Amino acid sequence: MTHQDNSPEERLPEAGKPGKPPKLADPFADPGLPPHQPRRQDIDERAAKRSEHVVARLFATAVIAAFGFIASYVLIPKEKVVFIFPVGHVSAQNFALGGTLGIALLCIGVGAIHWARTLMSDVEHVSERHPIEAPPQVRQQVFADFQQGAADSAIGRRKVLRNALLGALTIVPLSAIVLFRDLGPLPEKKLFHTVWSSGKRLINMSDDRPLRPEDILVGSLTFAQPEGVHESDADFQVVMAKAALMIVRLIPTEIKDKQSADWGHQGILAYSKICTHVGCPISLYEQQTHHVLCPCHQSTFDLADGGRVIFGPAGHPLPQLRIAVDSQGYLAAQGDFDKPVGPGFWERSA
């Protein structure tokens, strides 16, 4: 009777015996670099010249497109509409701006890629891993490689390419300058002045009638707008954002600031309704204290003391409008506000 040992060790195939899977190759082995193959431009100067001319023409096209962008912005009216298939009706200026700027950027990108693929060096360089802090010899090698790359790019020898690239990179950014100009209208002196001027009557916003001194009662708060401004005007909100006026009548002996009294008429004072913190309209009036309160952030101003800030985040007093009575007995402005209206801004000196 033959004895069989059924231990696990004997059931497993042994190395080199049938049934043993063969050893697999290292899946992470370094494949190495294929032999370098020179390009046609590397051995044929005429081919290199042709590539140079292609790149130069692309950069020149970018310059022309940039000038087209600027011309489109200046010459094409904003309201002009054209039909573009298959998009439909679009703004002619937007279409021209997008097309010319896209062509300029595309030509610079394609030109740079063609330059790199056909004229710059394409020899692969192997750099072994090294510590994060480079030793001095590596730093020297980096600078040497950079100088060699600059030499391989032929930017010093191929003057046509260099000048074309410099021209494209100089002209195309002008497109961004033109776009910055279109971020909004130039403020010029608009932040310093409103539509109020000498002789303009104060119009009651409640009934759209000119105000007389007898219309303003002691302790009341009246809102007014300049003569000639109407709610139906297209720019009404823009104008009133700076010209809105509130009028109070105080007992003359209660006015603390002499200039405020001189700029009023028989205790009638006219102040800007626009808070000097963030420009909210002021509408809350305390009759006994002569204080007005901004409902947005609780800035409080004393109308009996030149619109001085007595509480809250506002940084400037309320501008006052100098008023008088005209020949027909109506309240009229004697000029513009004494200070810029609304929140402070960086150009403002006081």
From TrEMBL:
Membrane topology label: Multi-pass membrane protein
PANTHER family tied to this protein: CYTOCHROME B-C1 COMPLEX SUBUNIT RIESKE, MITOCHONDRIAL
Physiological role: Iron-sulfur subunit of the cytochrome bc1 complex, an essential component of the respiratory electron transport chain required for ATP synthesis. The bc1 complex catalyzes the oxidation of menaquinol and the reduction of cytochrome c in the respiratory chain. The bc1 complex operates through a Q-cycle mechanism that couples electron transfer to generation of the proton gradient that drives ATP synthesis.
Necessary cofactors: [2Fe-2S] cluster
Compositionally biased region (Basic and acidic residues): 1-14
Transmembrane helix keyword on record: yes
Keywords, ordered alphabetically: 2Fe-2S, Cell membrane, Disulfide bond, Electron transport, Iron, Iron-sulfur, Membrane, Metal-binding, Oxidoreductase, Respiratory chain, Transmembrane, Transmembrane helix, Transport
Family classification: Belongs to the Rieske iron-sulfur protein family.
TM annotation in the entry: 54-76, 96-116, 160-180
Record-given protein name: Cytochrome bc1 complex Rieske iron-sulfur subunit
Domain annotation Rieske: ranges: 237-332
A Pfam family it matches: Rieske
Entry's localization field: Cell membrane
Residue span of region Disordered: 1-40
Location, primary (coarse class): membrane
Coiled-coil residues: none
